[in-house]
Amino acid sequence: MEIRGPIVLPAHREDIELQTSDGLRLVGELALPEDTAPVATLVTLHPLPTAGGFMDSHIIRKAAARLPALADLAVMRFNTRGTTSPRGTSEGAFDAGAGERFDVAAAMHLVRERGLPRPWIVGWSFGTELALKYAREHDIEGIILLSPPLHRATPDEVAAWAGDDRRVVILVPEFDDYLRPAEAAERFASIPDAELIAVDGGKHLWVGESQTARVLTEIVRAVHPGALPLPTEWPENDEAS
Hints:
6 helices; two-stranded antiparallel ribbon; 8-stranded mixed beta sheet; about 240 residues
């Protein structure tokens, strides 16, 4: 069976609730490898909710659907404050990246509480702003930024990552709507050790299986390269949906 589109590979999936320090309940899901302990953890931050971003935005949903089985990764996804998905609605209201600081902290609290290993924060679009602004406050191995628009993260917040031991991996689509590779190289130049990956043919929303596969491959290359290359087929006799 070819691994593509909405296929969901076997994993242990659990509905979770996150409690923020300012009193909100956020809804989400934690997906774990079905038969083994995870080797690392992805805490995912979705695109802008006022533009349709939520925990089911396709790259995040497909990371949770595939990577526990294909790369032994734990994947946490959740709706930031005021965001709705089929899983439910997180309490509160969108705060343009300010109050969402508490949402990131609540996710990292659950990581610590569960003893999940080697956490990385993976942000997409608006989620990259939250990662740049707030991930340095937490015990992580690094951040992976997908299509960063750099609308809310200030130059000082970007430069604060310079000299940090934690890795910064940036995927910039060739045809991004907001920040393309040449400009991204200039605006991230303040982080000399950052790994900026220009993706030929890529677009901000990473639509299509080839772009999805490229993004998931680069995530795994950063976090657990021993799992590469990612399989493109799944045995017919193993349960998948």
